[in-house]
Amino acid sequence: MNKRWLALGTVLILIAIGVFFWLRQAPPPLPPPVAVVSPPAVAPPPAMAPAAPAISHPVQLPPGMTELPPLAQSDDFVKERFAELLGAKAVKTQLLLENFVRRVVATVDNLARPLAPPTKWPIRTAPGRFTIETGTDGSVIAAANAARYAPFVALVEAVDSGRAVALYRRLYPLFQGAYEGLGYPGKYFNDRLVAVIDLLLDTPEPTGALKVDLPEIRGPLKPTRPWVLYRFSDPALEGLSSGQKILLRAGRENEQRLKSKLAEIRQLIATPKTSR
Question: Is 142 exposed, middle or buried (0-12, 13-18, 19+ CB in 10 A)?
Answer without folding.
Answer: middle
